[in-house]
């Protein structure tokens, strides 16, 4: 099947083959073609260019995009959308003055979600999770990473990963799975964290690898959760089974997690609400992608990732939602892009680069999605009629999406 998009007001994020990610000052540039066409052949981008060179052969479908813009779908490289229930009660607790840490210390937080998930059947968990996946696809997400981490027992963690695998099989969108067994210390291991880590390493990680349930391994390296030493232990164990590190670091405190990630060639280091000069220096001349999660900062009223310091140091940056029940109950990448511009002082060009090509890199999908490049998947957003792509982040709280396409097929 072939599809022609014609009269595109502006075709956004044009990249040559082999472009993996964008860094520093280059992120201020967003290559586009005005008055453009794009051809999709069997789900892949096969051609694009100026309308004056638009092909005239027969196409299975022709879409007139007059007044509208076309860009690659959002690439959300950090989510936890496989979870059970919600934590709206904790939302009210925070309004009444409790901090995220206080709620966690009172048995809330991740442990609250773990209890709910352990009590939820795999089928019910799948039904809840697929509804969220369908929601984010409709909001323009065309590739997504999903973590475990709300199970905190062997059975529950594997249940989460099997749900993610089922989502991969049933939906026409690239999905990457991450094993995050070290998300928190469960209550029954409260006084023996070492034993919990030992169980993950000896019992769970081998099964994750044997059943091919994840590509990545993650750990919450944070004060009150897991130390740098714990992080190195888990990352080393994961790498022995072919799991690439992607880790939570610097959400509340900077304790050396960034450096540990770099040491283990982590694909990404995520959160980074607290960043010091040593962290920035550690990331220079590496292939580790810093990932900011501005919706989390918004929801928890904590600092935003210092994007300007990161970009001005010549580093890349990706944006993701952190969609989860406790700190970011939203998977709306449009809001993420807006918030990055409004609160992190990123330009629209920087934010769109961070949410597309750099997001794709942060989950190992840079050769499949994230840019308008021949041979990549035609996972696309067709906007409503808008004046410029700057209107996308400007119109926060709304989205400017007319239609979403996965492999060239319109999603209804």
Task: Kindly describe this structure.
- The chain is α/β, with parallel strands linked by helices and 412 residues long.
- Helices cover 35% and strands 22% of the residues.
- The chain has helices at 88-95, 100-105, 110-118, 122-138, 154-170, 193-210, 228-240, 257-263, 277-283, 294-300, 307-312, 333-344, 348-355, 357-361, 391-394; strands spanning 2-12, 32-41, 44-50, 61-64, 69-72, 74-76, 141-147, 175-182, 216-221, 244-249, 268-271, 289-292, 318-319, 380-383, 401-406, 409-411.
- Strands 1, 2, 3, 4, 5, 14, 15 and 16 form an eight-stranded mixed β-sheet that branches. An eight-stranded parallel β-sheet has the order 6-7-8-9-10-11-12-13.
- Strand 2 and strand 3 (44-50) form a beta hairpin.
- Helix 5 packs parallel to helix 6.
- The chain is globular and about 70 Å long.
- It starts with a strand and ends with a strand.
């Amino acid at each position: 099947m072939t599809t022609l998009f014609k009269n595109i007001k502006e075709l956004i994020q044009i990249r040559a083959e082999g472009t993996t990610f964008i860094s520093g000052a280059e992120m201020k540039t967003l290559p586009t073609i005005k008055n453009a066409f794009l051809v999709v052949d069997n789900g892949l981008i096969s051609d694009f260019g100026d309308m004056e060179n638009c092909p005239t052969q027969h196409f299975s479908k022709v879409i007139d995009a007059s007044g509208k813009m076309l860009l690659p779908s959002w690439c959300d490289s950090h989510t936890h959308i496989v979870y059970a229930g919600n934590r709206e009660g904790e939302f009210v607790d925070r309004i009444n003055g409790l901090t995220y840490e206080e709620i966690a210390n009172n048995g809330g937080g991740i442990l609250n979600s773990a209890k709910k998930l352990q009590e939820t059947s795999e089928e019910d968990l799948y039904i809840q999770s697929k509804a969220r996946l369908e929601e984010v696809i409709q909001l323009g997400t065309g590739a997504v990473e999903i973590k475990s981490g709300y199970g905190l027992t062997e059975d529950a963690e594997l249940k989460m990963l099997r749900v993610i695998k089922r989502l991969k099989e049933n939906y026409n969108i690239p999905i990457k799975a991450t094993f995050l067994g070290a998300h928190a210390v469960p209550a029954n291991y409260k006084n023996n964290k070492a034993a919990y880590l030992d169980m993950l390493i000896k019992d769970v990680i081998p099964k994750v690898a044997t059943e091919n349930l994840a590509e990545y391994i993650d750990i919450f390296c944070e004060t009150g959760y897991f130390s740098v030493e714990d992080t190195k232990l888990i990352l080393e164990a994961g790498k022995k089974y072919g799991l690439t590190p992607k880790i939570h670091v610097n959400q509340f405190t900077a304790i050396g997690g960034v450096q540990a990630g770099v040491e283990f060639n982590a694909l990404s280091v995520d959160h980074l609400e607290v960043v010091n000069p040593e962290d920035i220096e550690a990331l220079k001349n590496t292939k580790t992608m810093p990932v900011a999660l501005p919706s989390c900062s918004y929801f928890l009223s904590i600092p935003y990732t210092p994007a300007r310091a990161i970009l001005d140091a010549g580093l890349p940056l990706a944006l993701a939602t952190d969609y989860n029940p406790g700190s970011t109950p939203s998977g709306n990448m449009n809001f993420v892009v807006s918030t990055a511009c409004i609160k992190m002082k990123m330009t629209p060009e920087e934010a769109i680069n961070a949410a597309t090509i750099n997001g794709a890199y942060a989950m190992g999908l840079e050769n499949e999605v994230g840019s308008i490049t021949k041979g990549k998947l035609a996972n696309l957003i067709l906007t409503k009629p808008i004046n410029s792509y700057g209107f996308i982040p400007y119109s926060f709280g709304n989205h400017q999406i007319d239609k979403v396409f996965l492999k060239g097929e319109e999603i209804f």
